[in-house]
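Re: the 366-residue chain
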Amino acid sequence: MSAMGKLKIVTILGARPQFIKAAAVSSVFSSYFEEVLVHTGQHYDPNMSAVFFEELNIPGPKYHLNVGSGSHGAMTGAMLTEIEKVLEIEKPDFVMVYGDTNSTIAGALAASKLLYPVIHVEAGLRSFNKAMPEEQNRILTDHISKILFAPTQTALQNLKHEGITEGVHLVGDVMYDGILHFSKIAQEKSRILESLNLEAGSFLLCTIHRAENTNSLERLTAIVNGLNACNELVVLPLHPRTLKYMNDYGLKLADNIRVIDPLGYLDMVRLESSAKKIVTDSGGIQKEAFFLGIPCITLREETEWVETVENGWNILVGAEKEKLVEAIQQFEPENERGNYFGDGNSVGKMTKIIQNFGAEIPVRNS
């Protein structure tokens, strides 16, 4: 318990999707808990980090670890060392982590080894592809967490199949909470369509960032060739890692591909909601496309968000040129969108669960 008489939560953030989720969560938590934000620095480019804190009104992090990029081992090890120092200073009641990044597993491991209860937001997601670093991160985090907030019924079943039933709660998806709020603000405030001289429904929006695609010459070449051949205007906010590998591989984009810098969340949501279709390898953007009613073409062989595929609003094309071009030209959802992600009050449910759990744990700090 903090000096204010509130439960203290140290929240570990490091990547764009986590900043977006924190915007929905921290605005509510501030009334009930003392939340200490820790930014690992995993995403450090201003367009991938600072802009989200500014435009989404996320409180500035109390600690910025400035870890930056590197190999998985170097990055995770550096985060572990620095997060442990923060926890020794703050002595929280809980440590909260989001999703499946290196920041997620580093925060969970540091907390677990110091015997602080771990809260995992987006627990139970599985791609069933352990070659993905993200899959390893999410599995390990789930198995050492004390409170697991599952966003969907599928996630709940995944945890049950692995023998994880204690501390598991189906609360819905915090990104759905966020999109309900921020899509309205984006419609009012964003001028990205005007600044890029785009008409709604006249373009495809594409994002590529996952290591399985960027680090593979064969996969990235096939994706670029598919985009070049699709005969559609493609707006491509280019991730710094993707840009690096495209330059390394000598890949060239055709005139129908319009490259722009990475965007803030409000501009990105405005583009998503205005796109004809979305082409992506991002888990978060797959969901946002579904929430906004935009057909999604996913550059992977599997997805954690199986509901979007089963409902017919998301199609998996991997990194095959022909499949990508065909989906861009022909894929159209035939079903009404289902409701798999809660009622938009996930954060309210999370708050009550943490309060109830906190009432049962012994006081560790003053």
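The chain has a mean pLDDT of 93.
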